[in-house]
Design goal:
By secondary structure, the chain is α/β, with parallel strands linked by helices. The protein folds into three domains: about 5-20 and about 230-300, no CATH class; about 30-230, P-loop containing nucleotide triphosphate hydrolases (Rossmann fold); about 310-395, Orthogonal Bundle (Arc Repressor Mutant, subunit A). The protein contains 18 helices and eight strands. It has helices at about 5-10, 35-45, 60-70, 85-105, 110-115, 135-150, 160-170, 175-190, 205-210, 235-245, 255-265, 270-280, 290-300, 310-320, 320-340, 345-350, 360-370, 385-395; strands spanning about 50, 75-80, 155-160, 195-200, 225-230, 340, 375-380, 380-385. A hairpin with a 2-residue loop joins β7 (about 375-380) and β8. α4 (about 85-105) runs parallel beside α6 (about 135-150), α11 packs parallel to α13 (about 290-300) and α15 packs across α17 (about 360-370). The longest helix has 18 residues, at about 85-105. The radius of gyration is 24 Å and the shape is globular.
Length: about 400
């Protein structure tokens, strides 16, 4: 079966170069227009969380949103993955807001006025003085207030990798991580015209679970609409692959069939499409199905880990507690070789392991694996969400 491609489209579109792991220019993003339209539709009424498996293209999507947003919106994008304290977060938000306000010759004066209460408080650039550590919530509220009062359009904050930031903060001070979540929720309620988009490749549910284990009882994102970033549709993934093959001048007997095979094999995920094409351009002669298959298999077991697949194993140790890990590994090992299975079939198989004797833990692990994009459930059957991940699991676990 062929995927119908509009050939005339390619005659008038600049072909692309493979860019594995790099920043994709907004004008080279393929197949995300409908998703972006849906995101903007949600943002008309409320803030949202945008989650997905790693390398699915969350950051590419919100960068495109920031670059191509409406003129009647103020869109502020910031990657916060490496933020390690609430004060660092306030400094970045302040910098972004003042950068915007300075374009209209305005200043976020509220922070300076607040800090002046302590006398000769020196501010270097956007680096807050030590005194700010105990007043960061007030400072964050002040700088958001400065922004809202000095512009007349809707404000949209696109904060990339919020869960990583919260995890970083929580490793030092779990109470501070709770307060960040609660303060941002309070700001959304105080300034209903402000929208926030939290993206994350590790689920916020893991972070909130950790916090609740230490007594946190809040529901900090129950006012935000949950969305995810799916793989591309097969038509769009094939289109992207064709553009890359043409851009890299790779010879193929039938480019449309080859492109569709590549797209399907890597689950229509753009990151892996770029990687495969990048490898194929190094091959002399015309490529075919066997060559594509070998490139993919070799990449999955490459000790240099170019596809960064090892996180599927390592994050189990990082985000599942010790009592859950043996259950999780056993469930994934079984489904990597015997899918699809119903719950009862999976329980019967997993309970053969003497370390797995609690049926309710199996249920809870399955719920987590669904949330974390390992598995899907269809007609009561559980299976791997992505064939590529299943293949990696088989190879890495010698199954």
């Amino acid at each position: 079966m062929y995927v119908k491609i509009n050939v005339r489209y390619f005659l008038h579109t600049k072909n692309m170069k493979a860019n594995p792991g790099g920043t994709i220019s907004p004008n080279e993003v393929v197949g995300r227009d409908r998703l972006i339209t849906n995101i903007w539709s949600v943002l008309e009424r409320q803030s949202l969380t945008l989650s997905a498996e790693r390398r699915m293209g969350k950051t590419t999507v919100i960068r495109k949103m920031a670059a191509e947003g409406n003129a009647d919106q103020l869109i502020i994008f910031r990657d916060v993955e490496n933020v390690r304290s609430p004060v660092e977060f306030v400094e970045l938000v302040w910098q972004d807001i003042e950068t915007y306000l300075s374009k209209s010759q305005k200043v976020a004066q509220g922070i300076r006025n607040f800090l002046n209460q302590w006398g000769d408080t020196q501010i270097s650039g956007f680096k807050l003085p030590t005194i700010a550590k105990t007043h960061w919530k007030k400072l964050l509220t002040i700088v958001i207030k400065d922004l809202v009062e000095n512009q007349d359009c809707q404000v949209v904050f696109l904060w990339d990798e919020i869960p990583f930031m919260l995890d970083n903060v929580g490793k030092v001070d779990q109470e501070a991580a709770m307060e960040v979540l609660d303060t941002l929720r309070s700001l959304r309620q105080t300034y209903p015209e402000v929208r926030m988009v939290f993206t994350g490749s590790i689920g916020l549910h893991h972070i909130i679970k950790k916090l609740k284990q230490t007594g946190y009882s809040g529901e900090p994102i129950n006012d935000m609409y949950p969305m995810d970033v799916p793989p591309l549709a097969i038509e769009d993934a094939t289109e992207l692959t064709i553009r890359l093959i043409q851009g890299e001048k790779i010879a193929a007997l039938n480019i449309q069939i080859t492109a569709k095979e590549i797209a399907e094999t890597v689950g229509c995920i753009p990151f892996y499409i770029h990687h495969v094409v990048n490898k194929l351009k190094l091959i002399d002669g015309s490529i075919n199905r066997d060559i594509v298959s070998k490139v993919i298999s070799d990449s999955l077991i490459d000790p240099l880990n170019p596809w960064q697949m090892e996180h599927y194993r390592s994050r189990i140790d990082n985000y599942y507690d010790s009592g859950q890990q043996v259950y999780t590994l056993e469930i994934l090992d079984i489904l990597a070789t015997e899918e699809p299975l119903t719950f009862n079939e999976l329980w019967n198989r997993s309970s053969l392991n003497p370390q797995i004797q609690d049926k309710e833990i199996v249920r809870s692990i399955l719920r987590l694996l669904l949330k974390d994009y390992y598995l899907i459930q269809e007609n009561k059957n559980y299976s791997f969400r992505y064939e590529l991940v299943k293949k990696y699991w088989q190879l890495s676990r010698d199954l």
